[in-house]
């Protein structure tokens, strides 16, 4: 496989997810403006922070006048799960020059990881595996910038009750359900979902992190028993 | 509002998290259990993001017909399990969601 075809494989794996991500980006732009964030700042957050749910959280916190240190901590907390993606792709990237590692770390999002990981697990020794991750990461990045820009331009003109944000959980369903092919993975999903609902009242989405860890532990426990 | 330093700080911490294990690789090798557990990460974290969106209305569990997200989500789960097609799952899920909202 050539670097170009690996790149396109990554782009193609990600493209369907843009259907779920693009409305989310548009809504982010609208929500950010409604929180009192200037249009330029709202747009630049998408490249400087580049993390969907964390951007919503940050926009909310800024709108509520939260202290900066708390906002940074909350963004770190909700993005902690990316450390596990980092560990997951590290073996594939370890022989690459540092500029590649920096670039791919910047592009390492939920969606890019989800789109690329089936291909990376399939051929981790491939010399062009990093191009697959780059293709998926770049496609999401470009789509996110454009969607955010559209949202900022639309601003408050968009009717708020279209329910476009529902495309995001649908995207996650479309990713996760086909991955569940044994009891341990089913347990991971059931426990994570249950704990996330039970702890949804915790501030700053800390319940999400606890839920992800609980699901991970449940899946690992059942997986190790077999 | 002094947004640029705040954005940069949030971007830096996000980047540091994403770079963490990629940077460590070579000097630190995750143990075997860690590697075996990793496939559960996307399942657990993405499910944790999605399920509250389906079940909760303004922080309270809603299982009635007044919660179109739940029923549309359940249909989407069925479509995803049967056909394993991302685009189809999102399209059918959103169609059911829009229909239920239009009826209700």
Q: Could you give the topology of this structure?
A:
The complex is a heterodimer of chains A (226) and B (104).
Chain A: H1 3-34, H2 39-48, H3 52-63, H4 68-78, H5 81-93, H6 98-106, H7 110-122, H8 129-154, H9 167-176, H10 183-198, H11 206-225
Helix pairs in contact in A: 1-3, 1-7, 1-8, 1-9, 2-8, 3-4, 5-7, 7-8, 10-11
Chain B: H1 3-24, H2 32-37, H3 40-55, E1 56-57, E2 60-61, H4 68-83, H5 86-103
Antiparallel strand pairs in B: 1-2
Helix pairs in contact in B: 4-5
Fold and architecture overview:
The complex is a heterodimer of chains A (226) and B (104). Chain A is mainly alpha-helical. In chain A, helix 1 packs antiparallel against helix 7, helix 1 packs antiparallel against helix 9 (167-176) and helix 5 (81-93) runs parallel beside helix 7 (110-122). Chain A starts with a helix and ends with a helix. Chain A has helices spanning 3-34, 39-48, 52-63, 68-78, 81-93, 98-106, 110-122, 129-154, 167-176, 183-198, 206-225. The model of chain A has no long low-confidence stretch (mean pLDDT 87). The longest helix of chain A has 32 residues, at 3-34. Chain B folds into 2 domains: 1-37, no CATH class; 39-104, no CATH class. A two-stranded antiparallel ribbon of chain B has the order 1-2. In chain B, a hairpin with a 2-residue loop joins strand 1 (56-57) and strand 2 (60-61). Chain B is extended, with a radius of gyration of 20 Å. Chains A and B meet through helix 1, helix 2, helix 3, helix 4 and helix 5 of A and helix 1, helix 2, helix 3, helix 4 and helix 5 of B.
